Amino acid sequence: MDGFGLGVLLDSRQIRKMISSYVGENAEFMRQYLSGELELEFNPQGTLAERMRAGGAGIPGFYTKTGVGTVIADGKASKEFDGQTYILERGIVADLSIVKGWKADESGNVVFRKTARNFNVPAAKCGRICVCEVEEIVPTGSLDPDAIHLPGIYVHRLIQGRHEKRIEQRTTRKKEAA
Predict the structure, then answer these.
(1) Cα–Cα distance, 10 to 32 (Å, whole number)
(2) How far apart are CA 119 and CA 97, in angstroms?
(3) Phi, psi (5° rounding) for residue 129?
(4) I need a labelling partner for 70 at 20 to 30 A (CA). Which of 31, 110, 112, 142 fits?
């Protein structure tokens, strides 16, 4: 979003490359990309999630059918398995991962809420450095170990921030008559 979240980093030219499944409607992002200042690599959402998971697990690459026969496959190695073509995708190891959690203890063990669990865990794990902003920091030992989604070993910097939820684009449908 313009002026919020990654938009702040875009405004200050702190992002060189984005690997994304969706880029939103950020005017500065569009300007930097179209002018050649920002590199962009699109990935199908599931492939992006698996690339992050693989990178965080130390797996350099994996084969997938997603993208075979499309521009996604251009320039990528392919291989046949059981008569089906698959393309090689590389695991992602990012210089920096920035994630938003709900709650963490002082040791960096993090709990995410709702859909934040979808991509924040693999995104955090694939970063050489992971910065996690949370709404609340509690004493070590006060979180239920079974409720921890991201162990503190992956968190290099923990920040308590203010909670602000913005919706980029709200779409609703008209109420149907009964």
Answers:
(1) 8
(2) 11
(3) -125, 135
(4) 31
Written as six digits, the tokens of 14 are 């702190």
Over residues 16-25, the pLDDT tens digits come to 998 988 887 8
Structure tokens at 153: 């070993």
Which residues, given as ranges, of the chain have pLDDT below 70? 1, 165-170, 178
Other beta carbons within 10 Å of 9: 12
SS (H, E, C) the chain: CCCCCHHHHHHCCCCCEEEECCCCCCHHHHHHHHCCCCEEEECCHHHHHHHHHHHHCCCCEEEECCCCCCHHHCCCCEEEECCEEEEEEECCCEEEEEEECCEEECCCCEECCCCHHHHHHHHHHCEEEEEEEECEEECCCCCCHHHCCECHHHCCEEEECCCCCCCCCCCCCCCCCC
Question: Are 43 and 51 a contacting pair, CB within 8 Å?
Answer: yes
Q: Residue 170's pLDDT is what?
A: 66
Residues 6+ apart with CB under 8 A from 167: none
